[in-house]
Amino acid sequence: MPKSPSVSCVENGYSSRRRLSGVEAVVIIVIVAVAAVLAAVAGMTVPVVLQVLLGAGLTAVLVISLVTGVPVRGLRAALHALLGPAA
Prior knowledge:
Elements: H1 5-8, H2 22-40, H3 46-68, H4 72-83
């Protein structure tokens, strides 16, 4: 059976069905749990919870970038992409 054009345009030659590692799964579970606790116990609204999680994520990216020695130009480009106006 011939492949449809829509399928052939997204093929990249390798399988993308990679399972999450244990560490990745734990990080996702902790993030969801912290968001739920902030919303339920602390009485924060959803936009405030999202702002807190976004701030924590940006801080983590900044710290990891500085520790691993990512060039400043790359960090500046990443911050511009995250904080710039939407296309």
